[in-house]
Predict the structure.
Amino acid sequence: MTENVIKKNKPFSKIGGHKDVIRELRYLVELPQKFTNLAKFKDGILLYGPPGVGKTLLMRELAASIGDCHFEIVQGPELMSQFVGQGEEQLREIFKNAAWESQKRKLPSFIFFDEIDAILSSRDNSDTQYEVRFVNQFLSLVDGFHDRGDIIVIGATNRPHSLDSALKRSERFDTEYYLSYPTIEDRKEIIKILIQKYSSKNVEICLQSINQTSIDELAQVTENYNGSDLEGLFKKAYEKMKHRCFKLDDETGEFTQECLPVLKKQDLEDSFKLYIPHFKRQSQNKINYYEKFQS
Ligand SMILES: Nc1ncnc2c1ncn2[C@@H]1O[C@H](COP(=O)(O)OP(=O)(O)OP(=O)(O)O)[C@@H](O)[C@H]1O
Ligand SMILES: [Mg+2]
């Protein structure tokens, strides 16, 4: 759950698209860390959007852009699955820890609540007293954290409508960013990132066979794909490549190598024929659902 201190990395190089959101977040969060005479951002931030568009990834990239910082990812469902009382205790510990890191070690502290809807569903729809207490506990911790040092709380959700409305009160999570499905240009960027990623997986990607034209073509035909689907497509293609290049002999039970393990455009095309993207599995209503929250 805890990432602790994150060392500097090239910021935002692993994320395709979301340029405007990244820019806004950098001004809001990163700039005051670097130019310390500027006022620090104190409120909570909510990232919302459909599954698989890079909310969690963006958070990690944001922490990397700050450089040395304390960064704790709290998985909402994990916290909620604790025994009654334990989750609340853990929540208090998380805030205490962040305050300690900020005050004693002078590190900017981030608490990132992934799938925050699991812990902060509307109290009106809560089934148990425990859930209501949990939301109350969270709100009181969030209200108090402003005085406890350089702590930034960020939540991410793909179910924004289910969140308790008190969260949006000023100084809690009233800064919201919508992360949408990737445009064609975003998909080109994501595909390039994936090519780089899979190039370093011990196999060389055959760059002659995946050139700019193929990237453009792939971005064109993957209209209903989010970043996670594109990653899924590459994973499947990688598996295809293994089957193409290595044969398992049923008689001897041994593998033999038939060709150089190089991911080709053909592997991606074969994988494309089988892959069903998330958006296709869902309905168009889903997109309307997020856009309604935005307005
Ligand atoms: N914009 C993107 N650029 C590059 N890779 C992406 C992008 N979006 C998603 N991915 C890939 O998909 C994976 C899953 O994305 P991520 O977990 O960040 O989605 P999410 O929006 O947090 O989804 P969920 O709502 O289900 O939690 C990432 O680890 C990354 O490999
Ligand atoms: Mg996520």
Notes: The first strand starts at residue 2 and ends at 6. The chain has a mean pLDDT of 84. The longest helix spans residues 86-104. The pocket of magnesium ion (ligand 2) is lined by residues 55-56, 114, 156 (CB under 6 Å).
